[in-house]
Amino acid sequence: MATKLDPHHLVALMKYALKGKQDSSPHRLDPSLHTFKGGIVNNHETSVRTFPILDALAHISVSLEESQVVAIGLQLHSWREEIRLTVAENKGVMNGLVNHLTKVWRNLQALSSKYEKHRDGKWDKSQLRSPDMPSDVGHLLKIEIFRDIYQYSLKKQMKRIDKWSEDLGRFVKELLRRREFLQLQGFELSLYNAVVALSMAVEVVSKLRDNPNVQLTRSEWEFVYFQSMQANQDVKIVLADRNGFGCEVLAQEFFSGHPGEDPFPLRRALEKLTSLPHHITSLFGFANSPHLQPALRYRLCISAVPKKAHTVELPASLEDWKSFLEAACGKRYDFQKTHAVELVEMFGSGKWVCPVHCECGLIQYLQARQGNQWDNIPPFSYIGVSKLSCSACRIWMEASNKQSRRKFYTRGSHGKWYWPWGVPGGGGVVNVMAQKVLDEYLAYLMDQKLLRSYSESTDASSDGAQHHLSDDQQNNNRAAAVARMQAHGAPGFGYFDTRYPDA
Ligand SMILES: [Zn+2]
What we know:
single chain; alpha+beta; 4-stranded mixed beta sheet; two-stranded antiparallel sheet; 18 helices; binds zinc ion
């Protein structure tokens, strides 16, 4: 039976209920439910490859330091040879984003042509796998794409650097303290190499933050590009080590064990600091893929989803919250009074402006008729997002997929509840969603042993062909690192001592 309780109130309630103990483990929507209809090509494997491309496009669309999330949908009109990207943001699409994406797309088209010329027809169309990316093709173009993306996302990238690089440097300093530098090998050597490359790139780009009028020279951008790509390549080895647990094992070894502290989130630090080159590599893979090439020949148009938000009044008084909790639980319990007091403290009595989160806003936009030629073109069922979805969005998408003919998926949810959160639209989906959120609330109360009885109680990461630096490029990067190290005396340690003196 569908609940009549306002889903906004229920989402606020879940935010309150799980405060301080939000589950951050990723929840993936069931990948077996992914449909590939409407994909760029019919081939299963290459359709899967479009997933990281949409996520990469969403990721490079983020420019603000915080509170910006971007979702991107894709439609393809094959006989008119047109492709449409539809972009949504939680707080409305930023000025300049459409121009940024258009420029990146144009350069990817040019890069795709260079790869095609290089293949010179020597590629068998029946092969599922794209040919390896030749590292010497489109060199200047790749640096230009890298620079444009880096500059657009500079504030966000500086924020990642400020948040993670010092602690990561400290961690590697600890590694050098515990091991003989010359004995580093395998996983630990890759980690060391990755952090040196990252650190050298950061040294150069930090000039941009220190003085906004500064321009990096072409050779400085080339240096930042090579070191960032090197770091990305080394980090890939580190993250895959010991079936993906190498980082956790090392962080645990270095953990002081102090109560109230956690082991250093090494994996997260490396992922965050290499997220930009990682996604840029996906885009280079897109340009290199013969299967996906038609998409880059098509004419591109970009639509922006208008900003949408609701003004919501939550229960304002102790009594209002008590009645709401009683209705939610179906009867009165003693704990409700304490919870009502805390809910009033947490939410106050004002009105809330609740933005519709971008992935839900985008889905709603794609489901509705806009009165243009795209109304009859089925959108690709995968939505690219710059961030994992929150729990409320996950539940709304599950409800929407149950009720609608068209299904949509994102790469998953981080399992956290956000407030304010706005319901994307009306209709039966809202009631189904409210019931699902209520079920989660009751399950939480059961788990907390606050209810006596309650009986009721979803990886697309295939990168395709890999972007690799050539042996010469890698040797040059390593040589630059060695020269930098030697300038600091003792190999390895002296450099980290200078860069991170307080560690
Ligand atoms: Zn959300």
